[in-house]
Amino acid sequence: MIAGIHKRTPGMSALYYASAALLLFVSLFPLVYAMSTSLKQGTALFSPELWPAQATLVNYVSLFRDQPFGRNLLNSAFVAGGVVALSLALSLPAAWALSRVSFRGRGTLMLTVLSASMFPQVAVLSGMFELVQALGLYDHLGALLLADLVITLPFTVWVLVTFMRQLPKEVEEAAMMDGLGVFTLIFRIFMPLLWPAMVATGLLAFIAAWNEFLFALTFTISTEQRTVPVAIALVSAGSGYEAPWGAIMAASVIVTLPLIGLVVYFQRQIVAGLTAGSVKG
């Protein structure tokens, strides 16, 4: 009887495959449409056909020829990679203290960290601008490294606290008995155990920093210091009244592909990291 209850009926199977197909279509169609449009030129951009009759790479060529888009990609990679490294390096000690050390006001501090991630960027924009100006970081990538931590750091701390609470205390006690210091315990003992969670958290932080627009637009003004979201928004400069949809779509495809590659490469660690904290062992 129990086996019969859990047996999948043909109707349930059809619903499952239909839902999966709908999800794939909704997820992949924007990327397929962007790739198709990026290979069109002239009046073909307004053609309803999904795949162009005469595909061309002129939009990709003009993107790197007419604008410093390669430099913008390197800027985004530097900022996103730096933000991930700083977020994880700062979050690990903070997560250890908030999950392993008992002190007065720990719950209030955790709620403060969580509430910091709820503030919209525009709410802290003026204060962050004054800080960037005071530090002499305006129109430097260092300003984005500092500003993007406002987005990623509360999230990474909160998530790593959740995962660190699942680690057995016997590991920590054994390390303390062997005379290991706090930082050795965190970065030598806990960090390998938290690797799946760090990959999942770091990838989400990378995506947030890679796609960040408001801070990048506000704190940089020169073309050489722009990141790709701002570069895409300003890709129409010098093109008159005709919006270069082909170039914009080509830039969107180029920006999206690294994120897809990272997700595919780290998919096992991401699944393990996202599911490990849901089961308390």
Structure description:
The chain has 14 helices and no strands. It is an all-alpha fold. It has one domain (66-276): MetI-like fold, CATH 1.10.3720.10. α7 (141-164) packs antiparallel against α10. It starts with a helix and ends in a 5-residue tail after the last helix. The model is unreliable at 1-5 and 237-241 (pLDDT under 50).
- Number of helical segments? 14
Query: Which blocks of ≥5 consecutive residues have pLDDT under 50?
Result: 1-5, 237-241
- Element-level helix/strand string: HHHHHHHHHHHHHH
- Number of beta strands: 0
Averaged pLDDT, please?
Answer: 83
Radius of gyration: 23 Å
From the structure above, extract its key features.
0% strand; single chain; 281 residues; globular; 14 helices; mainly alpha; MetI-like fold
Fold blueprint:
Elements: H1 2-6, H2 10-38, H3 58-66, H4 69-100, H5 106-116, H6 121-134, H7 141-164, H8 169-177, H9 182-193, H10 195-211, H11 214-219, H12 228-233, H13 245-265, H14 267-276
Helix pairs in contact: 2-13, 3-13, 4-7, 4-10, 5-7, 7-10, 8-9, 10-14
Condensed summary:
Helices cover 73% and strands 0% of the residues.
